[in-house]
Amino acid sequence: MATPESLGRLKDVWESCKAQDDQKAALIEELFKTIENQSRRLEISNSLLDQAQKEKWELIHKQLSVPFQGRPINKTQFLDEFVRQGTAGGKRAAQALKEAIKAQWPAYSRRAIITHIYANMRGLGATYEGNGVVSSLLDWYAFVSGFNIVDPMFDYLDAGSGKECADYKIKTVFQHHFDNVHCRRIILGASADNGYARLLGKYAGDKDSQERIALIEGPSFARELKEIADQFETCSFVNVFASQTLHKPSFPRISLPTIQPIPDNGFRPQKRRRSTSPIEASPILRNKNGDRVDPPLPVFSNEAYQQVRGWKLCNNFYLLGKCAAPGTCIHDHEKVLTSDQKDALRSICRGLPCRNGLKCDDPHCIAGHSCRYPVCVRPDCRFPPEMHGVDTKAVSQPNEYDFRTNWPPAWN
């Protein structure tokens, strides 16, 4: 039988156990409250992080792609007022295009705009030159350089001289961006080319595809494009692109006088090399640093340039009036060049650097004394570094009778 002392001890033990249980319960309850608070904070932090990530991806990866062509005939072209202003005009054209896109689609004003323009640079530049928009190819290349400077995602690129080069690149870039889920809209500028009707035809019946594609109408839509253009959103950036196509200049056919045949008297003259009078040298122009400056050439046609480039002419004979190696020269001396063709030949010769460099004082020198490109990025450029970025503003010229030559004329 339990004694009062043993019952007291049991009661004390039970009270001690009860107190420990209360402490454990309180501890567990406090732990649950802490976990709940931390879970709530983590949930809020995750929600904010998800929202920030979503906004970041929307700003960075949702894009507008603007692929279009720049080709000499029947393609979308910038307004002449931009092109003739050189570098400044290129910058203005890029900014005007960007603002026109944002005004047309305000919801995309914070999106990245990626612009691809492909052209046969030399051919298009020659067409602008032939139409009197620019005075030389240098002005055209300056415009392209200005366009590329404005935005790192704005590219005006040379597609090469092949007939389908620009078309192939445009179609490939179009498909690349269409397959990119982050690209919200593709804005295509090639309104006068029926060839793009086949590209767009496969998207014409799909509503989702139609909503992602927009067409720029510069010149009127070509017949086949016009048949499906109403299935896509169209826009006309009249403050950016010309509404008329740019055509290669045509040249009148020259009628030569009829020459009466000479009666055959049995005499057969030997073929003699055609001669021409030596050409008087022009004064040497120099800039403020004393570097030689090549005088500007008259505007010549692309047709003349292409003809002369295909002939193996004796440069000294046609430009200086005398062959440097009579009797052994293997180049052509028989053609009769027009003034247009001679100017084209001078331009070709200036593409080769003078061996005497910037200080050349040979009045008969027909080579170039500085790279003709204001911003030259060609890795294979023949001109040395010191002949790039030369100040071409002439400030003086020596007396026309005070010429000194650092090497004898080629015909001596």
From TrEMBL:
A Pfam family assignment: zf-CCCH_12
Span of domain Tandem CCCH zinc finger: 344-393
Residues covered by the C3H1-type domain: 310-334
Chain spans, region Disordered: 262-292
Domain named DUF7923: residues: 76-241
Name the record gives this protein: C3H1-type domain-containing protein
Organism: Fusarium vanettenii (strain ATCC MYA-4622 / CBS 123669 / FGSC 9596 / NRRL 45880 / 77-13-4) (Fusarium solani subsp. pisi)
